[in-house]
Amino acid sequence: QVQLVESGGDLVQAGGxxxxxxxxxxxxxxxxxxxxxxxxxxxxxxxxxxxxxxxxTDYSDSVKGRFTISRINANDTVYLxxxxxxxxxxxxxxxxxxxxIGATLRDHWGQGTQVTVSS
Length: 119
Description:
Layout: E1 5-7, E2 11-13, E3 18-23, E4 31-39, E5 46-52, E6 57-59, E7 67-72, E8 77-82, E9 91-101, E10 104-109, E11 113-118
Parallel strand pairs: 2-11
Antiparallel strand pairs: 1-3, 3-8, 4-5, 4-9, 5-6, 7-8, 9-10, 9-11
């Protein structure tokens, strides 16, 4: 298993900000997409934000205007800047990387970092 290294989760008051970071190992030589997913207790994991090699980004409707994803390609590092946090943002946030080798796609995940927003 390829491990993505995540950090930045914390307990924060509503309206506050956090920045999550994720680093992929150098052995992943052909990453096409990196992103963040989150999962609340008893809920299905959902996409929060993605950034492609082209620079295009996608955001879930619930975070548009509040979250920003960015990527440092040379270091395979991705950040998620989260502003104006709400209690509904609470959950475990997982980093994701998609690797393309020829015609084969592989998906890699981090272990998750807890984000808790109190009202």
